[in-house]
Amino acid sequence: MEENFKMVAKTLFGFEELLAKELTQLGAQEVKAGVRHVSFYGDKGFMYKANLALRTATKILKPINTFRVRNEKDLYDQIYKMNWTQYLKASGSLAIDTTINSELFTHSLYLSQKTKDAIVDKFRDETGARPSVDLKFPDLKLNVHIDREVCNISLDSSGDSLHKRGYKTATNIAPINEILAAGLIMLSGWDGESDFMDPMCGSGTILAEAAMIACHIPPNLMRKEFAFERWQDWDVDLFEKIEESLLNKTRDFHHKIYGFDKSPSAVAKAKENVKNAHLEEFITIKHEDFFKTQKAGTDKLHMVFNPPYGERLNIEMEAFYKAIGDTLKQNYANTEAWFITSNLQALKHVGLRPSRKIHLMNAKLESRLVKYEIYAGSRKGKYMNN
Question: In angstroms, rounded to a whole number, what is the distance separating the alpha carbons of residues 245 and 264?
């Protein structure tokens, strides 16, 4: 049995508890949530599993050293001391990503350069050869994180951010990040036990993530590559075993997932992405203006969507948000509707009282995920403002 080691899963602000729960359910040990990250322990197989199966992680890092630094020379000296041959060959390539939260340092690119210099100099001094830099497809991707005087050096096991699932080839204006989409669905509490709808589906990201959640399909099965596949200890047999075990846990889904968009080009893109994800049997997409639709049937409907915020689209926002509220109230009885917005002023014009508000960030935009419960019959007006 391979020994467990510490790992850090990075995530978006507000998703830390979701990610901690995902990790616990997946079988991680010593799970601890921080700010935009969750630390945990597991073995190499679990690292593969975390990259394949986590819906709300952006990266899985494997810390390999921690030390104190006061200046660039400290960083260079500490990096030079490390034994790099266990991670990289002299003929290999590397890339370095540096983040700083410190008054002692200001330029992350310069620190990446110093880190690279120390590694390259060490190889040259010991072997006469030196690794090269390859920013796109390195054999080793390093993460350097300096918090005040503490420097953490980690191997990046993921490579590209895990939001790049591999199914989305066509995008719209202001597309939603796949991790944000999955997190919104999970925060909304949808469990796959009712119909699901995105009435403004854009390029179909929320629909695809909902189908994968409903069917327990690992989100990153379609990625072309993970960074760990270039590591010296890469175990393809173990990876395929983990992949197979995750696929064996998928389940049938007995409800409907459907999306609308009033833009024909968005509908075409959404259908293309859903097809790329092999999810067509679960998802129906129609060219419809949500404001001219009404709910089919009386069964409970779960709705999650990402309406325009006015950041990149020229729309009269107050009237638009009022139309959202009117359509829900008049045409969508017995619906639990959730949406995210950064337009907090326009939100006041929905005309319904939200039963929940969750503070999130969408990229750099401060946002709210809001929940509206639309009741059938006499309770319909419960959350209306008079």
Answer: 39
In 3D space, the residue among 237, 189, 241 whose CA is nearest the CA of residue 210 turns out to be 189
Instruction: Please give the share of the chain, as a percent, with pLDDT higher than 90.
Output: 88
pTM: 0.93
Residue 30 is encoded by which pair of tokens? 């010593």
The DSSP secondary-structure symbol of 90 reads T
Could you tell me how many residues make up the chain?
Answer: 386
Cα 318 from Cα 320, distance rounded (Å): 5
pLDDT in tens, 184-214: 999 999 999 999 999 999 999 999 999 999 9
Which of 288, 285, 280 minimizes the C-alpha distance to 259?
285
Q: What rounded mean pLDDT belongs to the chain?
A: 93
Distances 237 to 2, 48, 51, 240, 241 between C-alpha atoms, Å: 15, 11, 16, 5, 6
Q: How far is CA 386 from CA 180, 329, 351, 378, in A?
A: 33, 13, 9, 15
Residue 169's nearest CA partner among 225, 133, 208 is: 208
Give the residue extent of every domain in the chain: 5-156, 178-219+252-383
Residue 42: its H or E element: strand 37-42
pLDDT in tens, 234-254: 999 999 999 999 999 999 999
In this structure, which CATH number among 3.40.50.620, 2.40.37.10, 3.40.50.80, 3.30.2130.30 belongs to the domain 5-156? 3.30.2130.30
Please tell me the class of the 178-219+252-383 domain: alpha beta
Residues of the chain below pLDDT 70: 1, 172-174, 310-314, 377-386
Cα–Cα separations (whole angstroms), residue 268 to 102, 116, 177:
46, 45, 19
Closest residue by Cα to residue 209 from 182, 189, 183: 182
Q: Helix, strand or coil for residue 344? A: helix
Record the tokens describing residue 351, joined without a space. Answer: 């005309």
- 32 DSSP β-pair partners: 39
The pLDDT value recorded for residue 366 is 92
Q: Within 10 Å of residue 43's Cβ, how many Cβ atoms?
A: 16
3-state secondary structure of 58: coil
